[in-house]
Design a protein that fits this description.
CATH superfamily of the domain at 2-98: Periplasmic binding protein-like II
Strand order of the largest sheet: 2-1-3
Radius of gyration: 18 Å
Strand content: under 5%
CATH architecture of the domain at 2-98: 3-Layer(aba) Sandwich
Oligomer: single chain
Distance between the termini: 18 Å
Helix content: 40-55%
Number of helices: 8
CATH topology of the domain at 2-98: D-Maltodextrin-Binding Protein, domain 2
């Protein structure tokens, strides 16, 4: 099976490799070098057999593929866990394919990375008052109706910002055991998928 993605290390690549790993696909080939729309064309032309996509992007860009049965969606990864997408609620969540605690932990790591996105990081020792000022400013921005309106206008998507407390919780709950970190690195890397 040829699975398309943007680049080694890109989130679509990593999710695709983790899903292939959890589903136990035999020797999948990862084909990189595409943009999102190019991946759609590669899938249509048979250049690749599969791809990973965000649910909202798929619905926005290629809803007719779903309604006409052009593609089949086999599973969904909930971020955060338990956040069911109404259109894809009938699908199995990828964690159902995990066969061990090790596999569930590496999935939890990826889920936390996806949930946290691009956090703002301050240097050690930043005074708590300054941290609080920045957190309050982010919350005020994310709660501003103008932010939501402008974000949707610019991207076409509804914003789903992660508030500081949720971000802090997601980062603190990241698995940190060396075995899981090493497994994640192998899945995210360019070599063959590790054995289950």
């Amino acid at each position: 099976m040829r699975i398309g993605a943007q680049a080694v290390g890109h989130s679509v690549y990593i999710v695709g490799r983790l899903v292939a790993f959890l589903m136990g696909l035999r020797e999948p080939k990862f084909v990189v070098g595409y943009s999102g729309p190019e991946l759609d064309l590669a899938l249509q032309s048979g250049e690749v057999d599969a791809r990973i996509n965000n649910a909202d992007t798929l619905l926005k860009r290629n809803r007719e593929w779903l309604t006409k049965g052009v593609v089949e969606v086999h599973a969904i990864m909930e971020v955060p866990k338990g956040a069911k997408h109404p259109y894809f609620a009938r699908l199995p969540e990828v964690e159902e394919f995990a066969q061990s605690e090790r596999e569930r932990k590496v999935l939890a790591m990826l889920r936390a990375f996806r949930q946290a996105g691009s956090p703002y990081i301050l240097p050690p020792g930043t005074p708590k008052e300054q941290v609080k000022i920045l957190q309050d400013a982010m919350v005020k921005t994310f709660n501003d109706p103008g932010f939501h309106r402008d974000y949707k206008k610019l991207t076409g998507d509804e914003p789903t910002p992660l508030m500081p407390e949720e971000m802090d919780k997601a980062i603190k709950e990241l698995p940190r055991d060396r075995e899981i970190v090493e497994l994640f690195k192998k899945i995210a890397g360019g070599g063959p998928l590790p054995p289950r």
